[in-house]
């Protein structure tokens, strides 16, 4: 079968000498102009960078894989759009080889990298997981030794980020849509806000200056629409347009396509152009034959307008209650599939579910970056609040009638640089530093009458665990919340405060010999209406008075 014109053009690659950056145990080869050797060069590139203004968390970034003398300003603009103090668990670097392709995908899993700026660790555990779980993924040392598409990104990462996590280098050898789709499925569990995905690619190769701008404009416009099929069709259109000098409209199209297949699954991820230039814009460039460079970032922007009807709120509360009831084997009268009546419940938005016994918190769990529709997220968070909040003992079935459910639907996160941007009582805060994170809802500051600094210090120490002053070096975001709750419980606990009473000797004996794992603190709240003693320290029920 005769290959299509798009396949012939997209599969074409430029044969280049090996890059200067090699794995630690591999011999280093040298390619002039492709690697940044010192921080002075990097500082100059970042000085002239034109970063995009971002509000949400950057999850993916497309940057050039060419020599910095031609593409360094575009690459630096992309990296500078991410806060230097941003913390990620891992950085995945996806690229196509710069020499002849190979079948499948190669993930480097044996060695760390060494650049002129120092060592870069490879997350071998994740690399090995990918290889073990997917027959089309392996490690081909020769593929990595003959390309610079991975290595050219490393100095930018080392220079820009204060805390550089381990990387996972991924080379896509097969020029096929099927391989990109399969790789997207394999990587999807890792495509989360905790990880950064770098796509290393150039765009149009070797047309003249004006044709490059036209072709790259078509490709870029299609790409930011976050539609894999539309992007591929734009490549076909450009490849078949008859530009004689064009080698390929996008060298690393398979890496871009892989990212788009994953991005399509996240409604909250928006692709935004940062910078465009081509080699003809460089002092050393030749406008008769150029290479195009884009930097494009993917930013999480939760699209939810915080407007729910009374019926929609009640339905979410019913979903939360049903999730708990089913887990504990308690019958309920819920009508199934009610979310079909309310399309907004299929939206994706951050949420927190909190459980209360009286006025005391009994468990809480939330998620700012969901990949589930709202009705499913609320069901999962309800169970997590009851069973997985490590501050409290797990909820027991006997408590369900006394539990009151509260749901908070969260607006998109907006990053701030000045505490004055926080409006107490209106804004909640989320902060992240060194892999630790924590959040506080808006009413927590209002109820405690805290200043902005007190609010930040409390969240940093009590929620994120980074110390009272840790917020000063953390990524800090603000959000708003739509909060609603069950107006009454199945059974009532008096809302007025109860006296704190120490257990007597007999009560202590019962508590200690019933196999409970709750700590003995000496002071408990006696809810006399329910016959349950509530631990003052963890709010968990110790035993029922009928046990006596």
CATH class of the largest domain: Alpha Beta
Shape: elongated
Give the amount of beta strand, in percent. Answer: 15-25%
Arithmetic mean pLDDT: 80
The percent of residues in helical segments reads 25-40%
Major sheet: arrangement of strands:
7-4-8-3-9-2-11-10
What name does CATH use for the topology of the largest domain? Protocatechuate 4,5-dioxygenase, Chain B
Structure commentary:
With 548 residues, the chain is an alpha+beta fold. It folds into three domains: 5-13 and 38-300, Protocatechuate 4,5-dioxygenase, Chain B; 310-485, Hypothetical protein ph0010, domain 1 (Glycoprotein, Type 4 Pilin); 500-547, no CATH class. 29% of the residues lie in helices and 21% in strands. It contains 15 helices and 23 strands. It has helices at 5-11, 39-47, 68-80, 124-133, 141-145, 154-160, 177-187, 209-223, 228-239, 253-263, 310-327, 374-387, 442-448, 452-464, 505-512, and strands at 22-23, 58-63, 90-95, 105-107, 113-115, 118-120, 137-138, 167-172, 195-200, 269-278, 292-300, 351-357, 360-367, 403-410, 414-416, 428-433, 436-440, 475-479, 481-485, 500-501, 524-527, 532-535, 541-544. A hairpin with a 4-residue loop joins strand 21 and strand 22. Helix 1 packs across helix 9 (228-239), helix 7 (177-187) crosses helix 10 and helix 11 (310-327) packs across helix 12 (374-387).
């Amino acid at each position: 079968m005769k290959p299509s014109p798009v396949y012939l053009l997209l599969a074409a690659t430029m044969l280049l000498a090996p890059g200067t950056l090699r794995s630690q145990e591999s011999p280093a080869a040298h390619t002039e102009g492709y690697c940044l050797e010192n921080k002075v060069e990097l500082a100059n590139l970042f000085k002239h960078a034109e970063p995009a203004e971002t509000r949400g968390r950057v999850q993916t970034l497309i940057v050039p894989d060419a020599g910095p003398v031609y593409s360094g300003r575009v690459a630096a603009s992309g990296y500078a759009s991410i806060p230097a103090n941003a913390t990620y668990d891992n950085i995945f670097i996806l690229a196509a080889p710069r020499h002849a392709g190979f079948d499948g995908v190669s993930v480097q899993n044996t060695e760390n990298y060494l650049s002129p700026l120092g060592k870069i660790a490879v997350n071998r555990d994740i690399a090995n997981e990918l290889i073990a779980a997917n027959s089309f993924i392996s490690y081909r040392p020769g593929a990595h030794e003959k390309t610079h598409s991975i290595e050219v990104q490393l100095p930018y990462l080392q220079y820009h980020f204060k805390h550089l996590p381990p990387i996972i280098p991924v080379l896509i050898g097969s020029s096929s849509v099927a391989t990109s789709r399969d790789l997207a499925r394999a990587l999807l569990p890792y495509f989360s806000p905790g990880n950064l995905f770098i796509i290393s690619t150039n765009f149009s190769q070797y047309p003249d200056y004006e044709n490059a701008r036209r072709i790259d404009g078509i490709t870029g416009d299609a790409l930011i629409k976050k539609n894999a099929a539309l992007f591929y069709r734009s490549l076909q259109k450009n490849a078949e347009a008859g530009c004689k000098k064009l080698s390929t409209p996008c060298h690393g199209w398979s890496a871009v396509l892989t990212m788009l297949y994953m991005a399509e699954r996240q409604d909250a991820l928006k692709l935004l152009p940062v910078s465009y230039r081509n080699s003809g814009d460089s002092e050393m460039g030749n406008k008769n034959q150029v290479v195009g460079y884009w930097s494009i970032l993917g930013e999480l922007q939760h699209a939810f307008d915080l407007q729910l009807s009374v019926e929609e709120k009640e339905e979410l509360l019913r979903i939360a209650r049903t999730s708990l009831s089913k887990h504990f084997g308690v019958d309920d009268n819920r009508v199934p599939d009610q979310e079909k009546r309310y399309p907004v419940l299929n939206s994706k938005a951050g949420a927190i579910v909190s459980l209360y016994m009286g006025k005391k918190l009994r468990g809480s769990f939330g998620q700012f970056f969901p990949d589930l529709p709202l009705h499913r997220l609320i069901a999962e968070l309800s169970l997590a609040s009851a069973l997985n909040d490590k501050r409290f003992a797990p909820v027991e079935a006997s408590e369900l009638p006394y539990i009151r459910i509260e749901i908070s639907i969260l607006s998109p996160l907006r990053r701030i640089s000045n505490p004055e941007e926080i409006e107490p009582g209106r804004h909640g805060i989320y902060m992240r530093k060194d892999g630790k994170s924590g959040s506080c809802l808006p009413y927590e500051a209002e109820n405690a009458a805290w200043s902005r600094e007190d609010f930040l210090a409390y969240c940093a120490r009590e929620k994120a665990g980074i110390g009272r002053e840790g917020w000063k070096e953390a990524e800090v975001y603000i959000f708003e919340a739509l909060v609603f709750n069950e107006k009454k419980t199945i059974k009532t606990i008096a809302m007025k405060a109860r006296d704190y009473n120490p257990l007597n000797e007999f009560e202590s004996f019962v508590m200690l010999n019933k196999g409970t794992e709750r700590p003995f603190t000496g002071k408990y709240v006696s809810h006399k209406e329910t016959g349950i003693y509530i631990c003052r320290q963890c709010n968990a029920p110790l035993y029922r008075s009928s046990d006596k």
